[in-house]
Request: fold
Amino acid sequence: MQYNPALRTFEVSIRMFTDDLERALSQPGLTQGNDKQRVVIKNNDKNDPLVERYVLKSFVLMDSQKKPVAAKYVGKEQEEDATWVYLEIPFNGPLNGFKLQNSTLMEVFDDQVNMTNIKSASEKRTFLFKKGQSVHIL
Reply:
């Protein structure tokens, strides 16, 4: 996550192994709109709505009142064995009291660990998210 002061948004880039993302999206009941079919991620495929619903549910910035900040799905890009997913989160002000949930792929892998770097102004912080600790206070 990197803060863009000109646009007043956090620009978020999430990198996942493509086969892990495909496995998550192929799980019955995990994402609406998937009728138990194997999802294959490629550039210019028709899976953006599935990826968007999944990522916006598992990567959530919450304000000090625990209300989710509306994130915008920008798109995805598949390369080699990884898929990049891009989000924009409107933001203005200090991060005090805000929380970040990053539970991506945790329902698929019990030992999943997600690392999130947050850059704002001259500050850079890194958070590790895992089962039982999928939310951090920023």
